[in-house]
Design a protein that fits this description.
Length: 159
């Protein structure tokens, strides 16, 4: 009796289990990172979250939707302005990288990431925060930068 097919099927089963485990880890990382971004969206004060590790919720049932398009507060730079805007850029770049690593399509990972970025900015209006279009633009720059970095790295690896 030949035992080759049994050994071959064991290798295939182990490979499938490993692939499923990697898929689970990738999906889990995306969910955890998305929750991290949402917590930063939901908290009443990002400064209190950063420095005091205090998480507070404030619900605004009737937000000013036009405030999404305010640009006048962009010039009101507070001490954490650069850190917070860099957080937008990096946070959504990481989200796009994780999504691309899962689905292997820049078109879909960029689309999903930008929709999620819009969703988080829009939600901020309901949580007493200032969701802004310019933050969505910063998020989008982070997202698109992943595309260009991966293209550049791929081009360099193909030389």
């Amino acid at each position: 009796m030949d035992h080759q097919p049994i050994q071959g099927s064991c290798r295939i089963d182990k490979k499938r289990k490993t692939q499923k485990r990697f898929l689970f880890i990738k999906v889990l990382l995306i969910i955890l990172w998305g929750l991290f971004l949402l917590i930063n969206t939901w908290t009443e004060s990002i400064e209190r979250l950063i420095y005091l590790h205090s998480f507070g919720l404030k619900w605004v049932s009737n937000p000013d939707f036009l405030s999404f398009f305010y640009f006048n507060d962009l010039t009101l730079i507070h001490p954490e302005f650069i850190k917070i805007k860099l957080g937008h850029f990096v946070g959504f770049a990481i989200m796009d990288f994780l999504l691309f690593n899962l689905i292997r399509s820049h078109k879909y990972s960029i689309g999903i990431s930008i929709i999620f970025a819009f969703f988080t900015e829009f939600l901020q209006l309901f949580f007493g925060r200032d969701g802004r279009f310019y933050d969505l633009v910063i998020d989008s720059f982070g997202i698109v930068s992943v595309f260009f970095i991966l293209k550049l790295l791929n081009r360099d690896n193909n030389k």
